Amino acid sequence: MSSLDTMLNLLLASALASLSVAAQQAPFSAYSNFRETGSEWTVFHHPIKTVAVIGAGPAGLQAAAKLVEHNFTVRLFDRAPSPGGNWFYTDETPVREPYPDRPFDEAPHIPESLPSTYYFEEGEEGITLEDRWKEHWQPRPLWDNLHTNSPAVITELPDIPYSTDRPWVLSNHDIQRHVRAYASFHNLNANDYQTDSRRAPVTAYSTRVDKLQKIESTQKWRLTLRKLERLQETNRIKADWWTEDFDAVVVATGPYVSPHVATIKGLVEWSKVKDGEQYSVYHSQSYRRPQRYENKTILIVGASVSASEIARDIAPYARDVLASVRPHPNLHPFQLRSRLRFPDTTKFVPEIDHFGSLSAYNKGIKDATIHLVNGSVLRDIDEVILATGYIHSNIFLPNFTSDGQPANLHWTGHYIPDPTLAYTNVRPWTIGKYQSYAFAKVWEGTAHLPPQKQMQEDYDNGKYHFRGLFASAASEALFRQYVAWLNNESLINGGRFVEPWPVEKREVFVYYSEVEWIKGYANLGNFTDFETLPAREWDSDRVAWDAIVYEDTEW
């Protein structure tokens, strides 16, 4: 008998034994203590048949597509009029950010009786129809010449490969077309319709979730929804509120929700200043094109991705570009890359201590002064761009902390106190397809989560900390964890096997990171060394590179 035959016989025997003696199943080391809780895995109150997906960006589209493929009744909601998430570019700019930040948990208005319909008129409540529409769907913080800071090999959705002659660095327009193509391929675009008349429509665009609550009597999730529709013929906006109930919910709303403005003395007053029709101080979310900065002196506050890339975009047009930067003693590679991406002509200045007094609100800021922490003073500034990041707004979720981050999540993204709620908390381009498959398998019963007590203990003890930049130890650990777990569950319970990230793409990524990121950040050893590292040593000194935060929320 060949070694291959021996291995196949062992796998078959293992699978049959596991099916016949389910109570003794211990296929994955993380699941070894189930019997202490009375069940080997988390048991749901009732079968999961209907699932809501909130957000139609790269993560939400993958989740919806996979759940539809696994025969769930799915509803995909997004406040924007089309799919794309943060990669849905338009020339429209968001409504002006508040000064100071509004509370991250500020609740929206919901009529007392639902369903409800209302027609908004121009200027009602002091709000134009244009601003009411933009507040609802929130145009994304992209600019026309934005290019991704990751190569195509790690910025690609499944099923829709880029052309072989794609550019080395992708523009936001390339990515938007790619994401919309994925949506169309899976019948999830704004103009798609359900081809099976027995199924309800999947997509609901221009529809935002205002509230999410668990109904105790049915153990279902109830979404309170609001859809806006522009009625051009009567110059009104129609607003509809209603509710829909679901067995499970996927939250795929992405990291960039509300703009953050720094708390600096005098900034609130400066935020009121205009030069003509243009505000003199504004958040980077409103930046679109560089031509109007011709011969102007611009101060950019911040030093992260938006700050450095906008500086590069406007430098050929502006007279001077200054950047106010806070000191950071230990910059991780992406922060360092952002600093190095500023154009050579950038003049770096210290933090702002306070904005000076104003003589008027309608003459711009050129004659006003900006005082820095080192005592120096800036004058003759035409405009200030606040590249100070974003905050996560919590308008409907049960488990957000004060800094806007979801808490109590299993490494699979499931909410531990109630795993019928799940979050897309991984990088969608590379690990999103594994997580989406996991959602479908867990809720259809072909993959199992540990008991909630075990998941909570693992979370509290920091057993699974997988947040890291691509090619970091944390990222590689998560790849291996997903592939091993999904394939193990499919072997025992049925389902298609998954493959690891393609080996042939490693050298492409490593070369890109050497040229475009930080020299020495990644090499083939980041991948090959981790292949020989057992899980028990993932946190040991053998890991030669640090796990670093994936989302850069600093400025």
Keywords:
5-stranded parallel beta sheet; 555 residues; globular; 25% helix; disordered C terminus; 12 helices; FAD/NAD-binding_dom; alpha/beta
Describe the structure.
With 555 residues, the chain is of the alpha/beta class. The chain has twelve helices and 21 strands. The chain has a five-stranded parallel beta sheet, covered by helices on one side. A five-stranded parallel beta sheet has the order 12-19-13-14-15, with helices on one face. Helix 2 links the parallel strand 1 (50-54) and strand 2 (73-78). Helix 6 (305-314) packs parallel to helix 7. The longest helix has 21 residues, at 473-493. It is globular and about 70 Å long. The relative contact order is 0.14. Residues 1-37 and 541-555 have low confidence and may be disordered.
- Mean pLDDT comes to 86
> Unreliable runs, pLDDT <50, ≥5 residues?
1-37, 541-555
- The number of E-state strands comes to 21
Please state how the strands of the largest beta sheet are arranged side by side.
Answer: 4-2-1-8-21
- Shape by Cα distribution: globular
Indicate the structural class: alpha/beta
β-strand percent reads: 15-25%
Helix content: 10-25%
CA distance, first residue to last residue = 63 Å
| Major sheet details | 5 strands, parallel
Number of helices: 12
- Rounded to an integer, what's the Rg over CA atoms? 25 Å
GO molecular function, one term: monooxygenase activity
Pfam families: Pyr_redox_2 (PF07992)
Domain FAD/NAD(P)-binding: 50-321
Keywords: FAD, Flavoprotein, Monooxygenase, Oxidoreductase, Signal
